[in-house]
Amino acid sequence: MSKFKNTTPTKRSKQTISESTMSIDEEATTTNTPIVYVEEDVQMLVNEGNTLKMEKPNFAPLRARDLKGTKRQMQKISVPPNRYTPLKKLWSKVYEPLVEHLNLQVRMNTKSHCVELRTSHHTNETGALQKGVDFVKAFMLGFDIDDATAIIRLDDLYIDSFEIKDVKNLQGDHLSRAIGRIAGKDGKVKFTIENTSKTRIVLADTKIHILGTFQNIKIARDAIVSLILGSPPGKVYANLRTISSRMKERF
């Protein structure tokens, strides 16, 4: 009969196999494989005092024309008939902050009765055109030129506009009495609301425009809404005193 050889490895053969595998693993670790450093590893190396250092790039700030391209932007603001004469009288005060502070190009088109604003290569601020539009619109709504100029100098000023009919549908004498309660005798109620809430209010027929910060506009609007709904001025004064005392405690 033919003899079959025993193919099962001996103990010695197992050791040689394990040694051969170890040698293969060691050769794999010694090969020149690229090492990828994670950001945390780089920071650890820098902290450990090694020579590896990474410097942050320093980029110059972008200008408005670099951010939005070389194309010029233009806006037109229509002039209502009741504000055309004041605009002509105060035109020198209107275009001065637009040209000097915002570096915009401005002109008044007498044919189409509108004010045209345009950016130029001197315009460096990104939101310059929008600030100029808000400034002109504030003047068109009836705000004083000094109050409207504050929109250019400060970033957190807004204009809130609403009508009396948005609060309550009043007609005839009821509407006139509501306007009278908001204004007060010789404008005392309106001045009190402005001074307490640190806002500026314009009463244009049935429309009301409030200029100020978001929080101060809310205070003034709540007081005006209470007057429209029929609250007596004395009660509104008491609420404004309470709110003003709370505001002083915060600051």
UniProtKB/TrEMBL annotation:
One of the entry's Gene Ontology molecular-function terms is: RNA binding
Per UniProt, residues of the K Homology domain are: 156-229
Where is it localised? Nucleus, Nucleolus
Q: Name one Pfam family in it.
A: KH_PNO1_2nd
Annotated segments matching region Disordered: 1-26
The domain of life for this entry's organism is Eukaryota
Q: Does the keyword RNA-binding apply?
A: yes
Which keywords does UniProt give here?
A: Nucleus, RNA-binding
Q: Which Gene3D superfamilies match?
A: K Homology domain, type 1
Q: Name one GO cellular component term.
A: nucleolus
Q: What does the subunit section of this Swiss-Prot or TrEMBL entry state? A: Component of the small ribosomal subunit, ribosomal RNA processing complex (SSU RRP complex).
Role of this protein: Required for small ribosomal subunit (SSU) synthesis. Has a role in the processing of early nucleolar and late cytoplasmic pre-RNA species.
The text of the family note is: Belongs to the PNO1 family.
Q: What is the protein's given name?
A: Pre-rRNA-processing protein PNO1
Species, as recorded: Ambispora gerdemannii
